[in-house]
Amino acid sequence: MRLQNNRQLELLAYKLLNDALMLWLVVFFVLLILEGTVPGYFSAYLSFTKMIVVLFALLASIACLGKRNEINFKFTFEKKLLKNKTALVLFAISLILIVNSVKSLNIFEIVVIFSTLVITVFYFYKIFTASENNS
Amino acid sequence: MRFDLTKNIKLEPVWQTRYIIARWILLVVFLMWIIYLGLKIIFPSQEFFYPTNGPAGKQNALENMARSGIVQNFDAFSPENFSTAKIQVVMAKNLTPGQTPDVTIRKTFKAFSYPIATNSTDLPSVNPENGIFANGTLLSFDNSIFAIIDGKAMPFDNPITFLSLGYQWNDVIPATESEIGLYQRDKLFTIDRPHPNGTVFLTRDSHKYFLIQNGQKLEITNQEISKSNPIIADEKSLDFKLSCKLKKNIWPLNSYECTIPISDLTQFLGNDYQFTIEDIDVKNIKQISLVFSRDMEWLNARNTLADIKHKFLMNYGYEAPK
Fold first, then answer.
1. Which residue of B has its CA nearest to A7?
2. CB–CB of A41 and B311 under 8 A?
3. Structural contact between residues B91 and B300, judged by C-beta atoms closer than 8 angstroms
4. Contact B23/A16, CB-based, under 8 Å?
5. Which of A57, A71, B76, B207 could be cross-linked to B273 through a Cys-Cys bond (beta carbons 3.0 to 4.6 Å apart)?
């Protein structure tokens, strides 16, 4: 009975940590976008380094509890990427951050950076889909 | 809350109820943290310490501390205006019973608070002489602005420092590479540095001109000097002081504290908040901390939001630095 309670408690902690991670990521991304638009303003009042440390602490706790309770996370690459809502949100945030960070560069530099980005993303896509097909 | 990241992990009904309650608590804690963060950004405070820990604490250091005697003077430099100043002093041992030292504060420019000189010295010129610029001249080169001080070019650390000292962008003279190359580069011009020799102050309340020379302030009537883009200051700022009496705190041990409402200081120009603690054994002081804060008022919130808007537009090139 006690063992069962302990397991339930750890599962509850695992679920809560996942929720905390989600909230933390949302706040972190919003602050990153705000910091990008008004550089130096928000980082004067909070430490992004500490936020990243907390992020890793949450991830480590989730991984540790997941391992103890044999919760397996199987990575499956979503082929229909654009139909996945989370991927769409992440794509939009990434796009805002990238566009904001290259706004002060000249057009030639932007073309080079975006070409490299597209090639890299395509390369990773091929690697993931290849490993999916092989498994 | 329907959104569930861990749908595949099923809990027993009792534990599921506990999870739902814990989830709401987590959400409320997060929201409270975000509100706290928002208030911290909209009503920012600024802290200063003595002593500080290492070079990283330099920007929060109380400056020009007296080292002996019974009057402790110190300065806190900030470009901002605040509503209150809370001062805490930790002593090595308790003050004698009934002793309540006075803390006074005034706001001005450091160099403007120099004593008035009694004798006149050679007045500098703002015009280049043989390719050499006069002391106090502001030069711009390659996205940097330099103050010429004693034959050295001192770059400003940021535009906030430049503006907080009362300089105007149109005071700056564009320099060529060879002109700026005549000067040895010096360390950064930070907010806690006083205006250099050769600076001219114009008081907007009494319409007097003062020239800064070797730690003294010389009243001048020279027309040529008067034309040289003076720094606007307030003569009344030197006499307008606010005060409070230090009272014993329960914690930390041997600590004393008081708060001064300083909204009235916003009428004066300057980046130097000058403090004096009277009737206190300076050698007995272990630590001083100072917190400037803003009241939660619509006016303060509006100022911060306007500042964020200005910085946002400036970042995307729609507005020039103020």
1. B11
2. yes
3. no
4. yes
5. B76
Q: A18 to chain B: which residues are within 8 Å by CB?
A: 5-6
Nearest CA-CA partner of B289 in B97, B113, B122, B60: B60
Helix runs in B93-247, H state only = 159-164, 177-180, 223-226
- C-alpha B236/C-alpha B191 separation (Å) is 22
Instruction: Name the pTM for this structure.
Output: 0.71
Say whether B274 sits in a helix, a strand or coil. Answer: strand
pLDDT-derived band of residue B90, with 50, 70 and 90 as boundaries?
very high
Query: Across the A/B interface, how many CB contacts are shorter than 8 Å?
Result: 57
Gyration radius of chain B's alpha carbons:
25
Given the structure tokens 């009537």, which residue do they identify?
Answer: B221
Chain B nearest-CA residue for A14: B6
More confident residue, B248 or A122: B248
Asked if the interface predicted TM-score (ipTM) of this complex is over 0.85, the answer is: no
A37 touches chain B (CB under 8 A): yes
Mean pLDDT for B282-292 is 91
Q: For residue B51, give both structure tokens.
A: 């002593």
Q: Do B311 and A38 touch (CB under 8 A)?
A: yes
Closest by alpha carbon to A15, among A51, A65, A52?
A: A65
Q: Report chain A residues whose CB lies below 8 A from the CB of B30.
A: 20, 23, 27
Task: Please name which of B261, B316, B315, B321 lies closest in space to residue B293, comparing C-alpha atoms.
Answer: B261
Give the residue from B306, B310, B293, B218 showing the smallest Cα distance to B39: B293
Task: Pick the residue from chain A with its C-alpha nearest to B43.
Answer: A45
How many CA atoms within 13 Å lie on the side-chain side of B21? 6
Q: How far is CA A64 from CA A10, A51, B52, B322, in A?
A: 10, 20, 39, 52
